[in-house]
Amino acid sequence: MDYTVEIEFQKVKDHLEAKFGEGMDMQAILFLIGVNELGHGYKAFTKQEKTELLHIAICTLLEPYGYYTYEGNDEDNWPHFKLEKKLPPLSHQEQQYLLKEAMIEYFTVNGYYEPQKGTE
Question: What whole-number distance in Å separates Cα of residue 6 and Cα of residue 8?
């Protein structure tokens, strides 16, 4: 296991908690990414919309790895993705690692977080 990813993820999480409040877990971070990608701003979402926001986040995070391709937005301006290849069988720990790595990259590329020198 690459502990650099764990250290950087904790820094991202700390940064998000400073902005949005304590208690940011993986699901909360996925939700934030989904809301950001939707681009409508925050509102009261239905349970189904929350599930769709998590799906948007996962597709967005895994797109650079070649698992999904953005296809466009529907008439309600919700993004849609095409599955390009299935994820290989991963343990829970491997899934968490992949998502953390992708989240670090997402927040870095989008300018929300800047890794400290020497930790990349």
Answer: 6
